[in-house]
Write a structure and sequence with these properties.
- The structure is a single chain.
- The chain is an alpha/beta fold.
- It folds into 2 domains: about 50 residues, Roll (2,3-Dihydroxybiphenyl 1,2-Dioxygenase, domain 1); about 55 residues, 2,3-Dihydroxybiphenyl 1,2-Dioxygenase, domain 1.
- The protein has 2 helices and 8 strands, in the order E-H-E-E-E-E-H-E-E-E.
- The strands form 2 sheets. Strands 1-4-3-2 form a 4-stranded mixed β-sheet, covered by helices on one side.
- Strand 3 and strand 4 form a beta hairpin.
Length: about 130
């Protein structure tokens, strides 16, 4: 059977510059070269070399809900929560309780927040 690994996530964004700054500020992503085309799509790399591709669509209506999200894990979960607080980024648990960390039945901590385009991001400590 084939094995697979995550290569990248692609998101349509209204303002690619604003989105680049958000992901660099929150996740310390590094901008990398878009090797696929000469388009205005910009690529970022997480610390594990997985990529986030931000595709400018200034006139595109972005519809989101919390059930459609991507999740990132960190061993420094509590430090990351402090980072969000320092950046004044509101986060919540699954039930939308503001600034609350949720602890799942399996003991994993998680929070949710949105990027500038409204995309939901989960961060947890399932490493």
């Amino acid at each position: 059977m084939n094995s697979f690994s995550l290569n990248h996530i692609a998101l349509s964004v209204k303002d690619v510059n604003e989105s680049i700054l958000f992901y660099q500020k929150v996740f310390k992503c590094k901008e990398i070269q878009n090797t696929a085309s000469n388009s205005k799509t910009r690529w970022l790399s997480f610390s594990d070399n997985r990529q986030l591709h931000l595709i400018p669509r200034p006139n595109f209506e972005i519809k989101v809900n919390k059930a459609v999200h991507f999740a990132l894990s960190t061993k420094d979960f509590d430090e990351f929560i402090t980072h969000l607080i320092n950046l004044k980024i509101n986060f919540s648990d699954w039930k939308d309780e503001s600034n609350k960390v949720f602890i799942r039945q399996d003991g994993i901590k998680q929070v949710y927040f949105q990027d500038p385009n409204g995309y939901w991001i989960e961060v947890n400590n399932d490493v």
